[in-house]
Write a structure and sequence with these properties.
Number of helices: 17
CATH architecture: Up-down Bundle
Distance between the termini: 59 Å
Oligomer: single chain
CATH topology: Sodium/glucose cotransporter
Radius of gyration: 22 Å
Number of domains: 1
Largest sheet: none
Strand content: under 5%
Length: 483
C-alpha cells in the first residue's frame, strides 16, 4: 500500500459518494423510458458534461500525457474534425433520431431497412463497445495498481464493480448526473497536477524550453501528405471528421445521452458545445505530458517506468503531497467510471431493446424488462473485466482504444449515411456492405501502412458504395432525410 491514509480516505469517500449519488437520482425509475432515456427530461448542460466526461475517459487521463511525453502535440489536430463532425451530426443525425423517437440508434435502421440491418448493426456495436470499453477499463486500472499496489485484476474489478452498482441502480439518469460531477473532478484534478508538475521543474519555463526546444515537443501541425501518419492536418480535418461522425452518430454509447435531452434543439446545443469544451481539456493533458518530460529530463528519478502510459500515474503517487494525490486518483477514477458506466448502460439498452425484447420475451411487463436491464448491466460488467484483464500487457492504451473502434465504425457509418441521404439499400445489401467494409479494413491493417485515423472513412465509403448497389423498398417506413 503506497498511499497516505489521507489519500485513502479521499478516494474511499469519492467512491462512496458516486454510489450514493447514482442511487439517489435513480430511485424513481419506473419504466424503460426512465431507465434508458431519463424520460427525455435531462438538462442540456448536464448532458454536455456527460458527453465530455465520456469522451475524455481514463484513456485521455493516462494516454494523452503519454503521447505528448513520447512524441509532441500533433494529437491536437484531431480536435478539428471533432468540431466539424458535430455540426453535421447536430443538423442531420440528431434531428432524425428525435423525429423517430428511438431508444437505440439501430431501431432507426429497422424502420428504414428492416430487422437484418438493425440486428447486424446492434451486434457490431456490442462487440466493439465491449472490446473498446474493456481497454478503457484497463487504462483506468493502471493508476490504481501503481497507487495501491494491487494486482491488475483487483484494480480492474474495483472500478468495474463500483461503476456497475450505481449504473444498475439508477440507469442513464444516474450515469449523466455522476458523469457531470466526475467531469468537474477530472478536469480540476488535471489542472491541479499541472500546477505541481510545473512547480517541480527546475528553472520553470526556461527549464521546459531547455528540455524540449530542440525536440519539437510542442509541434502541433504536420502538413505532410503521408497516409501512414495518423497525426497530420489532413487526418485532423478529414479522417477525424469521419471518425467522430461514427463515434457520435452510430455508437449508442455516446448517442444515448444526447437522446435524453428535452428536445432536438437542446441535444444539438449539448453536442456542439461539448466539442469546444474538449479543446482546453486536451491541451491541459498534453501540457502534463510535456512538462513531465521536461521534469524527468532535468532530474530523472530512480525507478522511472519504461512505459509512457505509467509516467503520469508514477508522478501522482510518488511526487504529490498527501491529499493532492488522493484528489488526483479520484480524478482518474472519475474519468474511468464516466466511460464505463455509459458503456454498461448503452450495452444493456441495445441488448434489451434490439434483441431480448423482440426475440426472447416479446410480451413481458415493464417491471420484467427493467429487472433484466439491471441483470444485463452486471453481465456486461463481467465481460469488460475479462477484456480489461486480457489487456494487462498492452502498450499505448490510448491508440489501442481508438483502433478497436476503427475496424467497425466505418461499416456502421456507411449504412447510416445510406439510410439518411438516399432511397437505396436493403437488409441483404447492407449486411454484405458491412462485411465488405470490415474485411477491407482488416486487409488494410495487416497488409498496408495506412494510419488508423483513415480506417473509418475508407470503411464507410466501402459500406455505402456496396449498399447503394441494392434497391430500396418500394414503400419505406422511414424516408430519407430532406436537407
Amino acid at each position: 500500500m503506497n498511499l497516505h491514509w489521507i489519500d485513502i480516505c479521499i478516494v474511499g469517500s469519492y467512491l462512496l459518494f458516486v454510489i450514493l449519488l447514482g442511487s439517489f437520482y435513480g430511485r424513481k425509475e419506473e419504466n424503460l423510458s426512465d431507465y434508458f432515456l431519463g424520460g427525455r427530461r435531462m438538462n442540456w448542460f448536464m448532458v454536455l458534461l456527460s458527453i465530455v466526461a465520456t469522451e475524455a475517459s481514463a484513456l485521455t487521463f493516462v494516454g494523452a500525457p503519454a503521447f505528448s511525453y513520447d512524441h509532441n502535440w500533433t494529437y491536437l489536430q484531431l480536435v478539428i474534425g471533432t468540431i466539424i463532425a458535430r455540426f453535421i451530426l447536430a443538423r442531420v443525425f440528431i434531428e432524425t433520431f428525435y423525429k423517430h423517437q428511438v431508444y437505440t440508434v439501430y431501431q432507426y435502421l429497422k424502420k428504414r431497412f428492416g430487422d437484418g440491418s438493425k440486428n447486424s448493426a446492434g451486434i457490431l456495436f456490442i462487440i466493439t463497445r465491449v472490446l473498446a470499453s474493456g481497454v478503457r477499463l484497463f487504462g483506468a486500472s493502471i493508476l490504481l495498481s501503481v497507487a495501491l499496489g494491487f494486482d491488475p485484476l483487483t484494480s480492474i474489478m474495483i472500478i468495474a464493480v463500483i461503476a456497475s452498482l450505481y449504473t444498475m441502480a439508477g440507469g442513464i439518469k444516474a450515469v449523466i448526473i455522476t458523469d457531470a460531477c466526475q467531469a468537474i473532478i477530472m478536469f480540476g484534478g488535471a489542472l491541479l497536477a499541472l500546477f505541481f508538475i510545473y512547480r517541480d521543474i527546475p528553472q520553470g519555463f526556461q527549464g521546459v524550453m531547455n528540455a524540449t526546444g530542440e525536440l519539437s515537443k510542442f509541434k502541433i501541425f504536420d502538413f505532410s501528405l503521408s497516409l501512414k501518419n495518423p497525426y497530420t492536418i489532413w487526418a485532423g480535418i478529414i479522417g477525424s471528421t469521419f471518425f467522430t461522425l461514427a463515434t457520435h452518430g452510430t455508437d449508442q454509447d455516446l448517442v444515448q445521452r444526447m437522446l435524453t435531452a428535452k428536445d432536438a434543439g437542446q441535444s444539438r446545443k449539448a453536442l456542439i458545445l461539448s466539442g469546444f469544451m474538449d479543446i482546453p481539456i486536451v491541451i491541459v493533458f498534453l501540457f502534463i505530458g510535456s512538462f513531465l518530460f521536461s521534469l524527468y529530463q532535468a532530474s530523472p528519478p530512480s525507478g522511472l517506468p519504461a512505459k509512457a502510459d505509467d509516467i503520469f500515474p508514477y508522478y501522482i503517487v510518488h511526487s504529490l503531497p498527501p491529499g493532492v494525490t488522493g484528489l488526483l486518483i479520484a480524478g482518474v477514477l472519475a474519468a474511468a467510471m464516466s466511460s464505463i458506466d455509459s458503456a454498461l448502460n448503452s450495452l444493456s439498452t441495445t441488448w434489451i431493446n434490439d434483441f431480448y425484447r423482440p426475440y426472447f420475451r416479446k410480451n413481458g411487463s415493464e417491471k420484467h424488462y427493467l429487472m433484466m436491464a439491471k441483470v444485463f448491466t452486471v453481465a456486461f460488467a463481467a465481460l469488460l473485466i475479462m477484456i480489461a484483464y486480457l489487456c494487462k500487457d498492452t502498450q499505448q492504451v490510448l491508440i489501442l482504444g481508438f483502433i478497436i473502434g476503427s475496424f467497425t465504425y466505418g461499416a456502421l457509418l456507411g449504412i447510416f449515411l445510406l439510410a439518411m441521404f438516399t432511397k437505396r439499400g436493403n437488409d441483404s445489401g447492407n449486411i454484405i456492405g458491412m462485411a465488405a467494409s470490415i474485411s477491407t479494413i482488416l486487409f488494410i491493417k495487416f497488409y498496408t501502412e495506412i494510419g488508423w485515423i483513415w480506417y473509418v472513412m475508407i470503411g464507410a465509403l466501402v459500406a455505402f458504395s456496396v449498399g447503394f448497389l441494392f434497391p430500396g423498398k418500394k414503400e419505406s417506413n422511414c424516408s430519407r432525410l430532406k436537407i
